[in-house]
Amino acid sequence: MPKHRRRFTPQQKAAVVREHLIDRVPVSDLCDKHSIQPTVFYRWQKTMFENLPALFERKKESASNGLMRENQALKAKLAEKDEVIGEIMSDFIAVKKTIGGR
């Protein structure tokens, strides 16, 4: 009968690595507690350290997201102004026709 692999969520993996780094729990105790191999733990830790720079890049992304939101707001405001101008022009043309102008 084949063994079924257990799947850990990213939150679970982070909790295990955090337990080692912050609470200073030895790797051997963690591996016994969670029934994982030490190589699995060290792979999770390596992945975490490799992806740490992405945490600091998010600040740049949020600035671009802010610019994108501002751009969308300005486009919406411009579209609203175009609608108002269109209504005023149609009213102006209707009044001009009733007066008899061209």
> If helices are DSSP runs of H or I spanning 4 or more residues, what is the number of helices?
3
What is the helical fraction, as a range of percent? over 70%
Quantity of strands, as a count: 0
Query: Helices and strands: which structural class?
Result: mainly alpha
What are the secondary-structure elements, in order, as H or E?
A: HHH
Strand content: under 5%
The radius of gyration computed from the alpha-carbon positions, rounded to a whole number of angstroms, is 31 Å
Mean pLDDT reading: 88
* Distance separating the two termini: 90 Å
User: Uncertain segments of ≥5 residues (pLDDT<50)?
Assistant: none
**Biggest sheet features:** none
Rough outline? rod-shaped
Please state the oligomeric state of the protein chains shown: single chain
Task: Give an overview of the whole structure.
- With 102 residues, the chain is mainly alpha-helical.
- The protein has a domain at 10-75.
- Helices cover 82% and strands 0% of the residues.
- It contains 3 helices and no strands.
- Helix 1 crosses helix 3.
- The radius of gyration is 31 Å and the shape is rod-shaped.
- The chain starts with 9 loop residues before the first helix and ends with a helix.
- The mean pLDDT is 88.
At a glance:
The chain is mainly alpha-helical and 102 residues long. It has three helices and no strands. It has a domain of 66 residues.
